[in-house]
Amino acid sequence: MIRIILTFLKIIREVAKELNNKVVVKFFGNSGLANGYNIEDICNEYKIDNLVKISEPVPHKKIILEMLKSDVLLIFCPDWNIQIPAKLFEYMATGGLI
Questions:
Q1: How far apart are CA 19 and CA 30, in angstroms?
Q2: Are 98 and 91 contacting, i.e. CB atoms less than 8 angstroms apart?
Q3: Which residues are CB-neighbours of 34 under 8 A, at least 6 positions away?
Q4: Rounded to an integer, what distance in angstroms lies between the CA atom of residue 61 and that of residue 24?
Q5: How far is CA 35 from CA 2, 16, 38, 76, in A?
Q6: Is the pLDDT assigned to residue 11 strictly greater than 90?
């Protein structure tokens, strides 16, 4: 999982340069750590801490509103086998990019 997140954050760093830092990435839920790595520390190291917001878990209704306001929704599930997370169906219902 950490390799996926590291790669994603590196891409955000490059995209932000192209878009004059007009990028905001929001992580919701228990997302401050990935395999023991602190996401905030990684963002500081990559100098994108001003572009990445990490939030504690929020009520489901608020998450739905955040999804509807988003331009792109991401789901990190490196170990998918048979199950599909319910969150994917919620993402699909927004009609946005996944």
A1: 28
A2: yes
A3: 1, 2, 5
A4: 21
A5: 6, 25, 9, 13
A6: yes
| Amino acid making up residue 80 | W
Q: What is the structure's pLDDT at 1?
A: 66
For the ranges 22-26, 41-45, 74-78, the lowest mean pLDDT is seen at 74-78
- Rounded to whole angstroms, the Cα distance separating 92 from 87 reads 9
Percent helix, strand and coil across the chain, each rounded to 5? 45, 10, 45
Name the helix (H) or strand (E) containing 70.
none
Structure tokens at 97: 């990019």
